[in-house]
Amino acid sequence: MNLIRAVKTALFSILLPSLILVAEAQESTPLPEFTEEDIFIDIPQVFSATRQTQKLTEAPASITLLSQKDIRAMGALKITDVLRMVPGMQSYNVSANRSAATYHGMSDDHPGRMEVMINGHSVYLPLLSTVAWETIGITVQDIDYIEVVRGSNAPTYGSNAFLGAINIVTKSPIADQNNQISTTQGAMNTQKYHFSHSETSDSVAYRLSTHFEENDGYNIYDDDYLNRVVNISGTYTPSFSDTVEFNLGFSNGFIYLGQGDNIDNNFSPRKHNSNFQHIRWNRILDDENELGIRFTHNYLDLEEEFTSAASAISHIEKIDIQSAQQLINLNFNNLGSIAGTQQPLGSEHGTMHLYDLELEHRYNPNSNISTIWGLGYRSESAKSDTLLVNQGTVTEDKWRLFGNLQWKPAERLAINLGGMFETTSITSSVFSPRMAVNYSLTPSSTLRTSITKAYRTPSLLEKNGQSAFLNNSGGYYDIVSMPNPDLEPEKLTSYELGYFHQWKETGSFLDIRVFTEKIDNALTSYYLNASVADDVDDGYRTVKNTMNWKNLGAEFQFKLQPHPNFSVLTNYSYINTKGERDRGDGRDIDSLDDRTPMHTAALLAEWKATNTLSISAAQYYMSKVNWLEGSHREQYRRTDLILSDSFRLKNTVLSTRIIIQNLFDDPYEDFYEFNIFDRRAYIQLQLDF
């Protein structure tokens, strides 16, 4: 048995991190005992905290792992639904089909302080300063597992990871050998169709998936939705020392956008066309050295419908029908845009490119020291007639130097030292360091303490954003926003104490994090008086560093698995926020004390009643919050029920799943007042062959 375990350990250290969690992600066997694989992975391996594979108990941050099994048990239909099981994270619907997620609140409809990655490459959009989840090129069915770093991970991934980082790992074609066809039908006339196919050979393995979905949205707004997704990922191993990983994704469709804070608001369609290409070459130089090169390209094109006079009246204050009629014949000569064009009704209109190149070197001289360092270059460019008026194509070049050292001076002690230096073409250079000390109290329990200083540089949009409404003679109707050349980086100082205990016999665990986070110089929209003739409301907005707050809190996650056929996963977060922002124009200082939910909680219970039948239920709770954009929302509780069964026919398995969200039909306002989340039912059919 010792020899077998040694061979397995050697193999798992070479394969991709996604393979490390395959055994954990599989469903429990119907037998009243754990399999060898369940026991073999004593402590889960993680990657996203430092870019190095390390034990969860030796990582310098609190990390939540959500497996394929967890995702199925939740009955998650969107990726953001999965994030409800992360302590301290809030997931909400900005409209019927636009979802968002933020860590520790303090957010509007475009959360911008959390990095989101697919297999290690960023899908953060500099054009919108956020992640548009419908454009990222993967779906829930493509996910193997998700790693969430709770707390700033800027020392590892830079400014976008200011408050946290999410790494979505897609299914490996080596582990996922089945062909699969599935469909989901249900509320809001939802129709989803998904197909995946995997192939492996001696040196090449790939997985192809395609996805189509549409629905009618809310009846009140008719904000329907359509999305097509194609994704291909795989590996090429020309030699024992070389591995090439590749991932390509495509997304195309439309979504209706608008604000659900008024029953009379108009929603307008926004088309999206996006794609990404990601390739990584890794070479094992010798027993101590490993070299990696990664290249990523992201492209996004957004198109909004042009406005009509009636729509202009409903969206622009202090404008009459005659002026609105002129508005639809806009001439942007004075602002450097294309003459004779009309103005899109919404602001999400434009294109962007992101190119990212990184070199990494891992050096592990012995079992007590492991290091990684790297150099990266990122180029971002964006163009928009609505968000970047008079800017043409704006660009940002960013260089990054990063590294992490893990040192184990004693058997029970692990020390992590890491940092990220960033220099950009649009603002000042910053350095984000972190130090963490992990001490094993017993073989099953670990205490961790860490300190992090992180910086977030202004995004391309925050630095250059400018928009205006014009009449056909070039005179101003309304300046909406103007750029601020004096923006400075946001700053975070974080102290945390963590405790992790695992019951290896059953796979149960307890993870506790106590923290303080102090955020200074944060960016916020700021209102100023204007001195431009014909400006309608005699004012405009800009972005300034006038927001500061402090979070004091605690969060935990607990998994109880007394039997392989029954498990409970639960989390809770308490956050006490104190802060303020100056919104300008002589206004009173705005308190930020209620801008973060004080309490969030989730519970997921799953029972495998028979070899094929499983029943799971999820309970979600969020206390009242006054969002920066969506305004005041009352607390809510929501219960989901999921029933799953499967039938085997020779080499084919047919699975059925009934998902009932908000089982007790207790409607709540989700972000906006008229985003009403009521009871919704769906049925899924899946064929594996």
Describe this structure in words.
The protein has ten helices and 38 strands. The model is unreliable at 1-40, 325-342, 471-477 and 530-536 (pLDDT under 50). It is mainly beta and 689 residues long. The strands form seven sheets. The chain has a 22-stranded antiparallel β-barrel. It has a five-stranded mixed sheet with strand order 3-8-9-6-7. Strands 1-2 form a two-stranded antiparallel ribbon. It has one domain (2-305, 344-688): Maltoporin, Chain A. The two termini are 34 Å apart. Strand 30 and strand 31 form a beta hairpin. The protein is 9% helix and 54% strand.
What is the topology?
Blueprint (H helix, E strand, L loop, with lengths): L1 H13 L2 H4 L1 H4 L10 H5 L4 E2 L7 E2 L6 E6 H7 L4 H4 L6 E5 L5 E5 L11 E4 L2 E2 L20 E8 L3 H4 L6 E7 L9 E7 L3 E11 L3 E12 L9 E12 L5 E16 L10 E17 L4 E16 L4 H7 L5 H7 L22 E17 L2 E15 L9 E18 L2 E12 L5 E13 L2 E12 L3 H5 L2 E4 L5 E6 L8 E14 L4 E22 L9 E25 L2 E16 L8 E2 L7 E10 L5 E9 L2 E3 L3 E3 L2 E14 L2 E10 L6 E2 L6 E2 L2 E9 L1
Parallel strand pairs: 6-9
Antiparallel strand pairs: 1-2, 3-8, 4-5, 6-7, 8-9, 10-11, 10-38, 11-12, 12-13, 13-14, 14-15, 15-16, 16-17, 17-18, 18-19, 19-20, 20-21, 21-22, 22-25, 23-24, 25-26, 26-27, 27-28, 28-29, 28-30, 30-31, 31-34, 32-33, 34-35, 35-38, 36-37
